[in-house]
Design brief:
The protein is mostly helical. It is built from four helices and no strands.
């Protein structure tokens, strides 16, 4: 094949594409719906892949957030357990200079 023949074939193909006759010249017109369906499936696969990737990124971020919250919860639980003893609370009140102490008598219910 000569370069001139290749150039002529490319030019004819470009003209056929512009006129919308390219598939007819390739004799693929009876498979047009199959070609459209294949491109649709390819587009759908790409779109689903992107959506799945975005979901996985969100899951990883949420896992990191949950891990941080579990650590925070454990720290607060330890802190609350340390405040659970009455002697510790009394000592903290004394250190803060508070006049509040443990009650000497049980609570009294006021009547109307």
């Amino acid at each position: 094949m000569k370069i001139g023949n290749i150039w002529q074939a490319l030019r004819n193909s470009a003209v056929a594409i512009l006129r919308g006759e390219f598939l007819v010249r390739l004799r693929c017109d009876k498979y047009f719906l199959h070609i459209i369906y294949t491109f649709f499936l390819l587009w759908l696969m790409i779109w689903l892949g992107i959506k799945i990737e975005n979901t996985m990124v969100r899951v990883e971020k949420n896992k990191e957030t949950l891990t941080n919250l579990k650590i925070y919860h454990a720290q607060k639980t330890v802190q609350m357990v340390s405040f659970d003893r009455v002697s510790t609370v009394e000592q903290m009140l004394r250190e803060a200079g508070s006049d509040v102490t443990l009650p000497d008598n049980p609570a009294v219910i006021l009547e109307k």
